[in-house]
TrEMBL record:
Residues 1-23 have a biased composition (Low complexity). One of its GO terms (molecular function) is monoatomic ion transmembrane transporter activity. Belongs to the sideroflexin family. One of its GO terms (biological process) is mitochondrial transmembrane transport. GO terms for cellular component: mitochondrial inner membrane. The chain crosses the membrane at residues 167-186, 198-219, 258-275, 287-311. Residues 1-29 are annotated as: Disordered. It holds the Pfam family SFXNs. It is found in: Mitochondrion membrane. Keywords: Amino-acid transport, Membrane, Mitochondrion, Transmembrane, Transmembrane helix, Transport. This is Sidoreflexin. It is a multi-pass membrane protein.
Amino acid sequence: MADTATTASAAAAASAASTSTDAPPFQLGKPRFQQTSFYGRFRHFLDIIDPRTLFVTERRLREAVQLLEDYKHGTLRPGVTNEQLWSAQKIKQAILHPDTNEKIFMPFRMSGYIPFGTPIVVGLLLPNQTLASTVFWQWLNQSHNACVNYANRNATKPSPASKFIQGYLGAVISAVSIAVGLNVLVQKANKFTPATRLLVQRFVPFPAVASANICNVVLMRYGELEEGIDVLDGDGNLVGSSKIAARHALLETALTRVVLPMPILVLPPIVMSMLEKTALLQARPRLLLPVQSLVCLAAFGLALPLAISLFPQMSEIETSQLEPEIAQATSSRTVVYNKGL
């Protein structure tokens, strides 16, 4: 029976391939684009954050899931193209959690990160903020980040709520402390002119958010450093659990979290400082907030796929760099591990 199902699945795949020449042959559960190059990873993550999947109806989601089930069991109807299969997989991965198969709340999906996060970025970059507004926007930003992290977590192993609360509180406290501290220092800097002080204040959110992101990653995933993470050989077989690979995974993720807010929180202040001098905005100050929102949206849309494309989702490391027991457990020169997002 298994051989029959496999043959039928292969036949269905061949049928799909023959009816679609634009899309690559479909592979269930595999990325559509090659992950060995930065461009391939960039195209892959553009699919993941595509905000159009937020508008997929319940009926379309059921159809996509059913299409993938038909492909898996070799009962795919004739005429289904590779493009349709890739589209169905994109929809399922954007909406349903891969481990629990439950729908992810829309604001916390990766595809909702930019639309729901942009208003927060605009709030972080508002000029002349009071102490209360600084605390509010930093708290809201880290709350949103924590919920996105939790909603897209690896749910194959149970994680205690205390770990989530610890990471959340650590991120909020570090972000608020750094933002408030830097703002106080800027206010007390008598050497700055009012214009310079305003410009410097606009860059305060970046170090606050970047440091909080690192704190969030370390605290939320500290268990990986203690227990290690799974490493696999070239055939996908489990080799063992490595603490060294866990350190590499956390370092790569932390670097991503530092790069991510850089264009979002650095480019808009530079662009806005130039745009504010134009005759159009000086004559129509009410346009400042809408223009700043568009600038932040563009920066966010560029920064997110660029940052998460820096490292492959499945990273590779030489076995000689890992624990001796890992190196002795496989003949492979390299092993792979899931870096996480």
